[in-house]
Amino acid sequence: MRYDVAVIGLGAAGSAALHALARRGIRVVGIERFKPGHDRGSSHGQTRIIRLGYFEHPSYVPLLRATYAEWREIERAAQRKLMHITGIIEIGRPDSELVAGTLAASRQHNLPHEVLDAAETMRRFPAFRIPEDFIGVFQPDGGFLEVEPALETMLALAKTAGAEIRSETAVRSLVPSSKAVRIETSNGTIEAVTAIVAAGPWLKHLLPDLAAPIRVTRQVQVWFEPTDPALFAPGRFPVFLIETRHGQHYGFPPHNGSGVKIAKHHHADQAVDPDHVERNVGEVDLALIRPALADNIPAANGKLLAASTCLYTVTPDRDFIIDRASGSVIVASPCSGHGFKFAPVIGEILADLAISGITAHDISRFSLARFGAA
């Protein structure tokens, strides 16, 4: 069967692209190797941070403004709450990558924020214990997204708008030509004018000649029972990022009966094969998380309630890849561990590229050309 667009991979970016294309009336099919919402890739684990002041680079802020609006539109369309604004506190020394970067983005784009010294940070958010030379940058617009409900909602809206979804269907090969792409799958052949490959950690499996030196790494996220629950009550403990001698850690307040969720950004930076990942979380993993809690959020360093792994697809500069790989193939890898929040606006960008070949959004930072690609 022939489609206008085939979207390969229905994680955050793929689901958003499917929705954006379907609501524009495009004949589109989404292909997912597993069941949508699975826990083998990068789009699971209950929650993801959303924030405006972006330490990674100020150029992301216009996309963030757009994605906030898109998430609110999705919530209105589905009549379902997906985004929770708790505020976000980002903590570290003033010259740390995290704090300096967040302040640079916030000041350049005139974003609402407060700079708190260590004493005021701990007074406002008493679960934290930080050195006196640390500061906190508080952004009132920060918060978190509910991951699995967000994916479910985008796919439901896409299907209602006319998209076809083929789950538990593995893509065996892509054969692009100047006019179309032939996609061989475990359940037959699909032809489309354009294919969007949003396969996350399996990107290079499907596009082995892609001129992008990406690595797939194992990430761990854990939930702890707080020893003093009152410190983590709404209004007293927002979403957070903290940079210390232990690295960069991030976390979330309890939600829907869960404990406090904590992870170390990039964890052990361990490269893995996405088909052969150690999914069990052990003491070696916890040793990368508990010391930071013991030093800086001791009341969160309680009983382990749950743990899971996910995968980062990492570029050398830790920026995204959104570009046309060939005449009929677009590659979408909003990756490096900070892409989920951007899903709706990336979906719109991918729809723009598939339909007209251009987008009004500035995606020059995400070009394949930076890797020496033609």
Word description of this protein:
This protein is α+β, with helices and mostly antiparallel strands and 374 residues long. 24% of the residues lie in helices and 29% in strands. The chain has 9 helices and 19 strands. It has helices at residues 12-23, 61-78, 97-108, 118-124, 147-160, 203-206, 283-286, 290-296, 343-355, and strands at 2-8, 28-31, 47-50, 83-85, 88-92, 114-117, 135-139, 143-146, 164-166, 171-176, 181-185, 188-197, 215-224, 239-244, 247-252, 260-264, 304-314, 321-326, 329-333. Strands 1, 2, 9, 10, 11, 12, 18 and 19 form an 8-stranded mixed β-sheet that branches. Strand 10 (171-176) and strand 11 (181-185) form a beta hairpin. Helix 1 packs parallel to helix 5 (147-160) and helix 1 (12-23) packs across helix 9 (343-355). The radius of gyration is 20 Å and the shape is globular. The two termini are 31 Å apart. The relative contact order is 0.20. The model has no long low-confidence stretch (mean pLDDT 97).
